[in-house]
Every structure is written in structure tokens, then in C-alpha cells.
Design goal:
InterPro entries: YtrI, YtrI_C. It is built from four helices and four strands, in the order αβαααβββ. It is an alpha+beta fold. The protein has two domains: 70 residues; 86 residues, no CATH class.
Length: 167
């Protein structure tokens, strides 16, 4: 069996030449569209890389400024609040919660001078604060109580834990 000779029939020659030309045109069209698409996305990727680099440098600058401001603010911090807690109030059954509250408020009243002072000066005067609290005896329900500081934390909020004992 023999393959028919297509070169003699012009319809087949036009068909194969059309297929070849169509394949060539479609290949060129594919390369053009794909190249344009790749170029567009390559530009977008480059723009995004540049934008990321700019944003990272901005973040670095902002972080440096933020750290500088934190250091400056750290130097200028002041006492905002005073917290006093009596830790052994359960030991004295004659002291009710109102009496405990009054004792805590009296101690806070003695320490009101610390409010709005910078932390450095408050830290330097911590011995004076201890003496002010421990040398004072408080009268509640016709009994005198002595105070002893168990712990003191000094930051923007001065937190003092006090132990109470009969005088």
C-alpha cells in the first residue's frame, strides 16, 4: 500500500501550507503575548521589590526614632500612682476591711508627695519613704499598730507591701 501523493493535489498543499503558516503565526503570537505578560509582571515584581526596600528602610528609621524617644521618655518618667497593700491583715481578726482600707489610704496620704516626681529622685529617697512609713504608728479601734515594709517596687506605679503588727 502506498501513501497517496499529496503534492499533486492543490487542496492538500493549501491545507498543509495553511497549517504551517497558522502554526508559525500562532507561535509568534504566543511568544508576543507571553513576552508582554512576562515583561508586565517583571516590572510589577521590580516595583514591589523597590517598595519593600523603601518600606523596610522607613521601618528601620522609625524604629531608631522610636528607641530614641523611649530612651528620652525613660529619663523623664514620673510616678503616676501609689499602691499600698497590707499582706497580713487576716492575722488580726479585729480589723475589718474598712479599717484596712483606712490604713492603706493613710499610708497613701503620707506618700502623696511622691506623685509627679521623677523616678530617679523617688528611687534615691526610698530610705526616707521606708522611715516615714515604719516610724509612724497608726491608731485603729483604740489599738496602735506598727507598720513594716516587706517589699517596695518603684516605677510609674509605686507598689508597697506592708506588714502590720500590734505596737
Amino acid at each position: 500500500m502506498r501513501i497517496p501523493p499529496y503534492y499533486r493535489r492543490p487542496e492538500w498543499q493549501r491545507f498543509f501550507s495553511g497549517v504551517a503558516v497558522g502554526a508559525l503565526v500562532s507561535w509568534i503570537l504566543f511568544l508576543y503575548i507571553n513576552g508582554a505578560w512576562m515583561e508586565k509582571h517583571a516590572k510589577k515584581i521590580e516595583q514591589q521589590k523597590d517598595e519593600i526596600a523603601d518600606l523596610q528602610s522607613d521601618i528601620k528609621i522609625w524604629m531608631e526614632d522610636y528607641e530614641e524617644l523611649n530612651e528620652k521618655n525613660q529619663e523623664n518618667l514620673t510616678v503616676q500612682e501609689i499602691k499600698v497593700k497590707i499582706i497580713n491583715d487576716k492575722k488580726y481578726k479585729q480589723l475589718d476591711t474598712l479599717s484596712i482600707y483606712e490604713i492603706e489610704e493613710e499610708i497613701k496620704g503620707q506618700l502623696n508627695m511622691l506623685l509627679a516626681k521623677d523616678l530617679d529622685s523617688v528611687f534615691k529617697s526610698r530610705d526616707l519613704i521606708t522611715r516615714v512609713i515604719e516610724n509612724k504608728s497608726i491608731k485603729v479601734n483604740d489599738k496602735r499598730y506598727k507598720l513594716k515594709i516587706k517589699s517596695m517596687v518603684i516605677y510609674t506605679s509605686v507598689s508597697i507591701q506592708v506588714e502590720i503588727s500590734l505596737d
